[in-house]
Amino acid sequence: MTSGMKTITVRYFAVFREHAGVAEEVRRTTATTAHDVFEETRDRHGSREPNGHCKVAINDHMAHWETPVNDGDTVLLFPPVAGG
Amino acid sequence: MIEVTRDPIDPFALQQSLANPAAGGYCAFEGWVRNENEGNEVERLEYEAYDPLVIEEGEKVLVEARERFPYLSARCVHRVGLLEIGECAVWVGVASKHRDEAFKACRYIIDEIKQRLPIWKKEHYANGDSGWVNCERCASHGSAAAIAD
Questions:
Q1: What's this model's pTM, rounded to 2 decimal places?
Q2: How far is residue B92's CA from residue B87's CA, in Å, rounded to a whole number?
Q3: Are A62 and B112 contacting, i.e. CB atoms less than 8 angstroms apart?
Q4: Helices (H), chain B
Q5: Predicted-complex ipTM score
Q6: Tens digits of per-residue pLDDT, B35-69?
Q7: Partner of B41 at 20 to 30 A CA spacing, among A62, B59, B76, B82?
Q8: Contact B48 A14 (CB under 8 A)
Q9: What is the edge-to-edge ordering of all strands in the sheet holding A6-12?
Q10: Looking at B18-86, which runs of residues are DSSP E strands?
Q11: In chain B, what residues touch A62 (CB-CB under 8 Å)?
């Protein structure tokens, strides 16, 4: 394995899923944080919004943009929420 | 307890589930589907949720509310799927010894739910367009951009 290279699953929700055209995908990446994944997939989810308005979860737990991403992780990218 | 359901919400049944002889107050909030948003005529709403984290984060909200405003019991149900005008999209109920805790906990729970839980709302407009609420600036595709105008 190339140094720093990892395989992760990225899941898209709501408007992100519609923009990406897929609900999830497996990616080979050198991303070290959730923020890196957000930036790397910008062309997929199409977000121009500062990522502070979006939320991220890793392996089904809410995370922060600085949270490290490890090989095998599933990163869930949530557009701005609107419940209620 | 927090739940996500695809079925219509029955507020009366939910109210009964909070019945408690020690409760002297009960407060509920119902969020209904409205026929207009920001000048657009809305025909129906479509809700999507990521259930595992709605439950995890929602339970944290209920615990926080109890710490701030000690209540006896609280419950929240959020509907997903396609909803028509007037239908109940979210229900929050709190039973407490006195009214103050019920009012305040209910308000805290619905406010946090709207800000924190992974739930999304797509408006379907009378003119045939649709758009994800709060996402008008976050995606560049046509339908979402349309409601930013």
A1: 0.90
A2: 15
A3: no
A4: 11-17, 51-68, 99-116, 142-146
A5: 0.90
A6: 999 898 999 999 999 999 999 999 999 999 999 99
A7: B76
A8: yes
A9: A24-29, A6-12, A74-78, A55-58, A61-63
A10: 25-32, 36-37, 40-49, 73-79, 81-84
A11: 53, 56-57
